[in-house]
Amino acid sequence: NAGVTQTPKFRVLKTGQSMTLLCAQDMNHEYMYWYRQDPGMGLRLIHYSVGEGTTAKGEVPDGYNVSRLKKQNFLLGLESAAPSQTSVYFCASRTSGDEQYFGPGTRLTVT
Amino acid sequence: GENVEQHPSTLSVQEGDSAVIKCTYSDSASNYFPWYKQELGKGPQLIIDIRSNVGEKKDQRIAVTLNKTAKHFSLHITETQPEDSAVYFCAAKSYWNSGGYQKVTFGTGTKLQVIP
């Protein structure tokens, strides 16, 4: 099992550009999450999904959209990137249990 | 909502010494408290967790204690080794919105350095 994978690993965007981050998991997990990690702020939940075809807002959803068309994939989109979205983005998934499995992260810089 | 505070933000110990990281939480309904270790360039990985009906849990050199009355929990690492150097995050799971969804709130992290 590859676990949770994220693509790309690094990306530099100019203000106003758009991009999509892909998260994939091969563990048949129902729940998937997108977090952002900023220095001194821990991990903050952007959006989450409790199953295929469902998505919901987390604590910092503004400027982001998500889709879960397939159970194994959770996509995070930035329609018009802003410098405030410079961060490291982590995807996670879990079963009905509590343990979350994290991907390796995507480092995004918006100039 | 839940608020998790974590101290210290950085911690340096000599190899073989013990390290203690402390967290407090605000929501008395929180019922699950995981600890994650994040190595450089990697995602967080669960190392130990504790539920609200347990006061202490141990796994080899790692232990976690929970004081529900005071709403604080701690991570204890004994006989530290250089490979323990990483960033450690505490977290608390609580109900987040009216839909009954339980979300995990993370602390701000502790960078542990074990000096050989």
- Mind summarizing the main beta sheet of chain B? 6 strands, mixed
Please report which band the strand proportion of chain B falls in: under 5%, 5-15%, 15-25%, 25-35%, 35-45% or over 45%: over 45%
Biggest sheet record of chain A: 7 strands, mixed
Q: How far apart are the termini of chain A?
A: 36 Å
Averaged pLDDT of chain B = 93
Q: What is the H/E order of chain A? A: EEEEEEEEEEE
- Report the largest inter-chain contact: A-B, 21 and 24 residues
Overall morphology of chain A: globular
The dominant shape of chain B is globular
Q: How would you describe the oligomerization state of the chains in this entry?
A: heterodimer
Summarize the structure in words.
- The complex is a heterodimer of chains A (111) and B (116).
- Chain A is mainly beta and 111 residues long.
- Chain A has no helices and 11 strands.
- In chain A, 33% of the residues are buried.
- With 116 residues, chain B is an all-beta fold.
- Chain B has strands spanning 4-7, 10-14, 19-25, 32-38, 45-51, 56-59, 62-67, 72-77, 86-95, 102-106, 110-115.
- In chain B, strand 9 (86-95) and strand 10 (102-106) form a beta hairpin.
- At the A-B interface, strand 5 of A face strand 4, strand 5 and strand 10 of B.
Blueprint (SSEs and pairs):
The complex is a heterodimer of chains A (111) and B (116).
Chain A: E1 4-7, E2 10-13, E3 19-25, E4 31-37, E5 43-49, E6 56-57, E7 65-67, E8 73-78, E9 87-94, E10 101-102, E11 106-110
Parallel strand pairs in A: 2-11
Antiparallel strand pairs in A: 1-3, 3-8, 4-5, 4-9, 5-6, 7-8, 9-10, 9-11
Chain B: E1 4-7, E2 10-14, E3 19-25, E4 32-38, E5 45-51, E6 56-59, E7 62-67, E8 72-77, E9 86-95, E10 102-106, E11 110-115
Parallel strand pairs in B: 2-11
Antiparallel strand pairs in B: 1-3, 3-8, 4-5, 4-9, 6-7, 7-8, 9-10, 9-11
